[in-house]
Every structure is written in C-alpha cells, then in structure tokens.
Amino acid sequence: MDTWLLVVIIAVAAVAVVVKRLIGEPVNVRDLFGPAVVLSALGVWSVAEAERLNGADIAWVAGGCVIGLGLGMVRGATVVVFEKRGILHQRYTARTFGVIVAAFVVSALYGLLAGKLGMHEDARPMNLSIGVGFLGEALVIGYRGLRGGTPFAPEKPSPLDAYTGRGDQSRR
C-alpha cells in the first residue's frame, strides 16, 4: 500500500476517534481498545516487515513505544469519565488536547533525534506511535471505569459480525 495513502487512512481514523471522544461517547471495550490494538498491530507488522533493521533501531522503537504508552496514560488521566443513563461515558477536555499537543511535540523531537542518530526510517511507523498512545489512554480509562463500578456500555453491532458468525442472533 502506498505510504501516503496509509498515512491519510490512519490520520482520518485517529481524527474520527478524537472527534467522537470530544463530543462524548459511551465507553465499551471494543471502541476503547479496538483502535489501539489495530493501529499497534499494524505498526508492529510494519516494523517486522522492514528490511535492514538492527538492534539500535529496535531499541529506538521500544523507547518510542514506552514514551507513547506513557504519554497516552497521561492523556487518559485527563479524560472525563462519568455515568450517564447508567453506563460509563468519556469526554475529552481542553487538558486532553494540551496533552495531545505535548505528545505530538515529544514524539516529533524523539523521531528527529532518532533520525539524526541514524535510525532507519522504516522503524518509525506512525501507526505504531498512535496505537500505543491510544493503548495507554485505554488502559487508564478502562481502569478508571472498572474502579468506579459503572458498567461499560454494551457492544454495538459491528459490520464484521456477519462474517464472524455473531450477526443476527435470532437465526440460531
């Protein structure tokens, strides 16, 4: 797949998640962890498929993941988690966007430094950075939701349910 097309798809997906969370949305496990898992998995796959990576490149990737996970956890701590109609909801705040901007700056500087020190470009996939950030956020929000005792929202039907056998339950 063309790199720029992948960047556009990832950017659109990330913006869609952020907009939904800015408006406020019910928290269900699939929506909370799904984008993080998918983007992280695509990023790991990109790194695994990259050629000519060495131990230093992998160390930079690991360091970037630790930084992204930590910044995502900080971002998750700024999200408002509340009960509405008996289920858990979340909403981004102005502080959340401050952390997003700070995380972007830190990640850009880390990437610049890595590039200056010779890290292979294929070892810096954007989807991995975004994915581990969403994962850190999801871990904190999930923990806060469980600790608060408010039930998570029920899972919404997925377009993939028809292909996984979890579609129309009335046919069984």
Short description:
This protein is mainly alpha-helical and 172 residues long. 67% of the residues lie in helices and 7% in strands.
Structural descriptors:
172 residues, mainly alpha
Describe the protein.
The chain is 67% helix and 7% strand. Helix 3 packs parallel to helix 5 (126-148). Strands 1-3-2 form a 3-stranded antiparallel sheet. The radius of gyration is 18 Å and the shape is globular. It is mainly alpha-helical and 172 residues long. The chain has helices spanning 3-23, 29-49, 55-78, 94-116, 126-148, 161-164, and strands at 25-26, 80-84, 87-91. The protein has one domain. Strand 2 (80-84) and strand 3 form a beta hairpin. The termini are far apart.
SSE blueprint and pairings:
Layout: H1 3-23, E1 25-26, H2 29-49, H3 55-78, E2 80-84, E3 87-91, H4 94-116, H5 126-148, H6 161-164
Strand content: 5-15%
Instruction: Provide the helix percentage.
Output: 55-70%
Radius of gyration: 18 Å
The gross shape turns out to be globular
If strands are numbered along the chain, what order do they take across the biggest sheet? 1-3-2
**Helices and strands: which structural class?**
mainly alpha
Which blocks of ≥5 consecutive residues have pLDDT under 50?
Answer: none
Largest sheet: 3 strands, antiparallel
Order of helices and strands: HEHHEEHHH
Task: Name the average pLDDT.
Answer: 87
- Give the distance, in angstroms, between the N- and C-terminal Cα atoms: 39 Å
Individual helix count: 6
| Beta-strand segment tally | 3
Number of domains: 1
